[in-house]
Every structure is written in C-alpha cells, then in structure tokens.
Structure prediction request, 989 residues.
Amino acid sequence: MAPPAIHPIPDSQLPWVFGLLEMLEDRGGREDGYKIARDLNFKFADLLKVMKAAEILGLVSTPAGDVVLEPLGREFLAADVNQRKRIIREQLRKHTLFGYLVRLLRAQEDHSLNKEVVLEHLAMLLPDESPERMFATVVNWGRFAELFGYNKDDDRFYLDEEGEKA
Amino acid sequence: MNARRLISGAVSILIVAALLALFFSFRAHAPHLHGPRFSVSVRQLPYYAFCSFYRMLAAYVLAMVFSVAYGMAAARGRRWERVMIPAIDIAQSVPVIGFFPAAVYFFVALAHGGRLGVEMAAVFLIFTSQAWNLALGVFESMRTIPDDLRQALEAFGASAWLRFRKLSLPACVPKLVYNSILSWVAGWYFLIACEIITVGPSHYRLPGLGSYLMEAADRGRSGEIIAGLTMLLLIIVLMDLMVWQPLTVWAEKFRYEFASGAAGEPMGSLGMLHALSALGPAVYRTARFVIRPPAALLRVLLAGLPALDSTTRARIARAARATGYAALIALWLIFLYAIFKGLAALAHALSGPWPDQARLIPAATGASILRIVVAYSISLGWTLPCALAAADNVRFRRWLAPIAEIVGSMPATALFPLIVLFVVEVTGGMNLASILLILTGMQWYLLFNLLAGVNQIPEDLKEAAHAYGLNRLAIWRKLTVPALVPSIVTGSITAWGGGWNALILSEYFSYRGKTYKVLGLGALLDAATYETGDSMMILLSLLSMVVVVVGLNRLVWRRLYNVATERYRID
Amino acid sequence: MALLELRQVSKSYPHAKGNLRVLNEISFSVERGEFVAIVGPSGCGKSTLLRIINGIIAPTAGQVLYNGQQVDGINPECAMVFQSFALLPWLSVKANVELGLEARGVPPAERERLATLYIDKVGLDGFEEAYPRELSGGMKQRVGLARALAVEPAVLLMDEPFSALDALTAIGLREELLDIWQAPDSPVETIIMVTHIIEEAVELADRILVLSAGPGRLAGDLRVDLARPRDRRSEPFNSLTDKVFSLIEERA
Prediction:
C-alpha cells in the first residue's frame, strides 16, 4: 500500500505565528500579506512561510494574498497559555505528518525513537524537503504543543504522554 | 629593538640558565643505575607499552591540574596576565630534550635512588611539553567568556565555586579537549625521546616503547622494530577512537553558538582515520550509558550530604582563598630560592677554566643552524606544493588530511631507530641521517598548519578568482600563497621548535657500540653528557642553544608573526 | 516610601587621559507596582544605570536606596533579563532557569518546583530539556525571563530585552510580558526596563525616564496615563512618542 499523502510543514517558528495573529487583531482581523511584510521589515518569502504555518494550524485563512483571522485564531488569542497549547495540539493531531509520527511512536514499545530513524522516515515521506530542517520544526512545534519531546543527550524522540492524555 | 625587549630577553635567558645550572648542580649525585637486562622479545612488548602509557597519563594529569590553575589565575586580571603569559612564552622556547639529563640528575637526587628519579624526570619532561599549551588554552577560554554570562551569574549572586563549576570550567572544555589532543601528540614525541636517551655512566634507559625500539635497532632486529611501531600505532589509534573522538563530540556541547566550527577544528576532528570518525558518536553514547549508574550514585551521595548554610560556606570560601594565596606565595618563594641558588651555581660553574672544546661552540652552532635550515627547506619544499594542490583540489585534500593525521600522530622520535638502522647500514653517512631525523621532527608541523590554513581560505574568494579567469599560477601567487602566509609563519615557528629538539637527538647517537656524531651544538652537548661528563661544557652548549632559540624567536619569528597577522589576515 | 530611590548617582571610568564620566548625578525614585522605562540614545549609560541598580556595578558617587536602606553590592530583590539572553549553552533550559535559584542557595526540590512553574508561565512547557542552540531568539529570551522570575524578585530589571529579536517575535513577547506582570499571582510588581525603542516604552510603561548622553543625565520624567492595551496608531500614543523624541533631541 502506498504511504498516505503526507504534507510538509513550513520551516517557520510558532512565536512568529502568534505575533502575526496579534498584528492581525490590531488591524481589525484582515490585512494584505505584502503590507505586513513591509511593515515588519520581513522578507516576503519568510512571511509567506509564517502565513502558511498559521493556515495549516487553522488560525488564519489566506484568500488572494490577504491574511484573515479565523474564529479559531480569535479563540487562540483570547486563550491563556495552556489553552493555546491545547488548541495547537488538537490541530497538529489532525495534520498528516504529525498524525503519522504519533502513530509511528505509538507502535514502538517505549513510544520513542532515535533521531536517525525519524530522519529516515522524513526523508522517505518528504523527498523534496531537508530531513534535518523538518525534524527541527517538528520538534519545535511538538514541544510547544506538548505532543512530542526530544532529549538530545539520550537521543530520544518521544511521545509526550501527559500531552497525549490531555 | 627597544630597550624593554632587550631586557626581557636577557632576563628570560638568565632565568633559564639559572634553572639549568641548578639542575646540574645535582650532578654530584650522578645516578648509579643498573638497568635490567633488556629483552627485545615481542612478548615483553605489552609491558613496555604499559610503562610508556602510564608515564604519559601521569604527566597529562599533572599538566591538566597545573594548566587549569595557572590559566585561571592568569585570567584574573591584567597584572596577573602580564607576568604569567610571557612566562609561558619563555618556557615554551626552551628545547625540552636538552633538559632531560639535567632533570634526571635533579630528580634522582630528590628521590634518593635510581629508577624512580629517572621516571620522575621523564614525567616532568612530558609535563613541560604539555602544560604550557594547555594553560594557554585555559587562559584563552577564560578571556573569551562573554561579559553578559559573567554578569548574569554575578547578578544572581553565584558563589565563586558555583561560577567555577558552571561557567569557567565548562567554558574551557572545547579548547582543553583540542589542546589535549595536540599535547598528547607532543607528549608521545618527547616520551619516546626520553626513553631513547641514555643516562648515567652505565647508559641506563627507561623501559618503554622508545627504549624497546632503540634496543631492537641496536641489535638489528627489524622485525621487532616493526612490532614495536605497530604497538605504538595501535595505542594511538585506540586512544583516538575511544577517547579523543567521543571527547570531541562531547566538547561540541560547550561551544558558544557564534563560534561553531571555526576556531577549534583544524581538519574536521583532529583524530585519525576519518572514515572511522562516525564511530565517535557511537562510542560517546556507549560511554554515557556506562557512566550513568555510577554518576547517578555519586549525585545521590552528594545530595545526601548535609547542605551547608551560608555562613559556613563563606568561611570555607575564605579559608580556600587564604590557602590559595599562601600556596602562591610559597611557590613564588621556592621559585626565587631556586633562581638564587641557580645563579650561584651558574656563577660557580662558569668561574672555572673554560674547556678547549668551548672554542668549537660558534662553529658548531653554525653547523647546527645550517642543518636545520636544510631540513626546513626540504620540509617547506614538499609541504607547500602539497598545500597548494590541496587548496585547488578538494578530493586531494580529503584524501590527504586523514593520512597526514595518521602519520602526524605517530611520534617521529619512534622512527628514529628505524631511520638510524636504515641510513647507517645503507649509506654509512651521518650528516644525511641527522638531517633526515631533524626533518621528521619538522615537516608535520608545517603540513598541519598549512592544511589548516588551506581550510580557512574562504570559498568565495576562490570562486571569485576563478570567475575572473586567473590561471592557476596567478591564483597561487595572488591568493593562495598570501592567504597561507600566517600559517606558514606559525608552522615554521613550531617546526623550528621541533627541529631544535630533534637536533639534540640526531647529531649524536650510539649504534651497535659505535658512536656517530657530526659537528654541531647537539653533538657537543651529547658528547659532553655521555663521554666526558664535563658539566661546564654541557652548560655552555645548552646555554648557547637557549640563547640562539630565544634570540631567533624574538628577532625573527615574533616580527614575522606580527607582519603576517597584520598584513595577510583575511577578514 | 518609595521602593527604590537613586540619589545623585554618578559613574566614571578611569581612562587613558583622565576619567570618562558615564552617568552624572542621576536622581529619581520608583514606586512599588510601577512599570518604568528608561530611554535614551546609545552611549547614554542606561545599561550601566540598570547594573548599578542591580548592584553588579558600584556607583562612583551617590546612593542607591531600597526600601529606605542603602544597598551595597548585589540587591537580592532584583533580577535581570539581558539583551543577549546570557544563557549557558551547555545547560538545558531547566538547568539554566534553576541556575539563578541555585546561586541563591535554594535546595534542589524547591528549585525543581519553581523552575517548572515559571517555565510553564513563560510558555516553554515541553522545552525543559532543550538546549539554547535549539531555540529561537524569542524562546531564549523567555528562558532568561523564566530564570529571572524563578527567584521571585520584587523588581524585574530588563536591559533592552527585545532589541535582539525580530519584530514579529517582539510583538508577541511584549504582550506576554504584560500578561505575566498583570497576573494576580505574579511575584514581580515593579519593572524597570531599558530600551532605545521609544514606541516600546510608550506601549508598555507607566512612566518614562529620558536620559540624555554625554554624560548621561536625567532629561525628563513622563507619566503615561493611557489605558492598556494601548493602540499604536492612536493620537495620544503618537503625541507621547513625539514628546519623548523631542526630549532626547533637545539635550543631544
């Protein structure tokens, strides 16, 4: 059976996504992407990644180059830190890549893998992306959402059990 | 050259001379050593290897302790730095091997007996070959700690002990690991040399790999020589795989982010057999796995200790500081006393009639310098083209680097017996042999430095040169060679240092009952040590060597170095 | 009684040609619960001033009074957040946060509790075992913030905390800083922040102290009475910004 269609995530950090949401709220919920980039002195290509990330997480939509705050985005802004994590975690679980990784980890006896193995999977699933960068982004988002954990010293990429139950 | 430099140069020579004389004054207690019957059987090899290894280890541990203490002290402030760092400079410019017989006399007298004294002398010598390098590494690490980190710890009220544990010591790890690798290479070199040298009237040799090789050569047993060399190579490779590679991986953790990769790595990891370097992380993980239970136990034990309240801790801190100062003062007093006694001994030694042989010193010095120059030219003659080729051809570089590492990690002194065996048997000539021996002590330093310099030439400069359509010769002339000038200079400085040491070993040796020597400073020194036992002569030849080395360092190398780093730096 | 008071604080450094005066007779006081911003051009000594308040640097003249008592040396009621984050690269996030507590002699179990609590508060739950190099700038500063908060200081000192971050990250962090400060269970009541970004000062602070350069002296002391959250595009906001600007220019 062919592996399920896995989509990559843009190599962008979550704090930028949150900053984007704050900005949108300030500007009434909708703004031209290009203008945002210009006002922040951001390279448009980089802002595009942030927009894409926010869109994947269901917090904004991007019709025709604009960025629009979605209801989930507003809910996110009003929430406290722990609720925000929960929102992100729910959204990530629905994402193909994260879902795949969750299933993969669950299939292991101790719910963990070492980095090399994960990199191999990433290379296989997303041949057009750099496995190292994908891994770094996955770890970053996963840690925030308390979905995954990664201990560099022990070389363990693992399922965050507490997050899982919440 | 201004007055200040002249005075400091003279002072350094004087200090070294005094110490030398002091050591020599113990000659009256010349060791009556009777070595065991030397067996060259291969079955004894592990024992000899073990002897050599524990000497290295003892010296290294001492050197580490010393360098951490010294480096941190020197980093405490400008006034400390101004005294302590030049002191290392002086220490580094003394040819270590020349000291060995003197050190033997001193330690044997100290230890009231034979073998222990000689062992201590060997350990002391290896220590001196490692300590300065390590201490400088600690010093540099301390000075490059970002101010903010220091202030942060201070702002939170961290005690000196906490700052040492969490900031100072970890900050030193990368440089210490890197310098340790280099120090061990140097250490092996001198250890083997120490074991090759004979001391005392009965020509005693310390049992170890060096003496094994020399004895085997003496008896013409080339098979045993190969076995000995293989054993040495094995130890070096094992150390690299099981110690240096994992340590280098671990040391990465302690780098500041902005300094990733630049400073400490000459050619990837200074370890051998690049292909096997992938094993490094694996060994590292195994090591961590093994260390975990005892480390956890230790932590539990320490946590179980009653916590000290702040007044007790303050009292302990004060006591520690007081002891530190007391120790420092004591060391200074001992040092001054030694200098004083040494100067007296010096005066006494030089007051007697000068031996006839002293007249040979100028000519001998000239001959020795000539020999080094020849060896240096040959070294440069092949290493520079290699470097140029490596600069242009990435594949060549990738192939050359591991080989250079392997061959360079082998102490050249271990090859002396083989070379002697070969050259004397085959050609019967001595000058060639000595030049070859000096060559082995010089060329690797040049090669390493040049290769490191090649690696640092920025790619975009090379690309730009190609884009401008410059042909190869023009690129070499305008880009590669100028870019390599700092490396050539630093490589030459170290190479000449190595050359002087090799000189002492190579201008005079006994082989198969015959003595071979040439006209040279090293030969005069050795002849005086082994044949006539004339202290005055020994002292004079050593002193001449020190004067020449210090003089060359200051007049030639220091100037060249300043010019090179100023004009030829790539920024 | 004012929480913190500076009386005629001056600082000079010995120089090749005499003394370089960095701060000249600065006097002001800070009340409990205030958010004070110190703005000024580069070289006006505002970072030095902050370190004098903390106690890392001693003033050449003048006094620093805390709760009416003169402070000599480090003031344990203050904790500082640095522009360059000042994290130890070889320690994990948790170990870095615990470091401040360890320095103060807090026992291990309590350290663990406090560190976990404040790592959570700055939103880094899940990152305890990460190392600084795995973190973005904003996250690193959060670690610095957690470390400062963990010792539960009465006064939080911030030295250009968001200057090294990109605009998008800074926006989020400023919001979070306000949330943390205004939270009912926050240990920190008073914040003194040094910044060269005037808009940042106007957005966050209750009071703005303007320092002028060469040597640094107090050029102005403005109250910011706008309700939070403040709208950057509103008229009062902009006029305040202009006022601060002119104060700096005037004495330049």
About this structure: The domain at 360-571 of chain B is CATH 1.10.3720.10 (MetI-like fold). The radius of gyration of chain B is 25 Å.
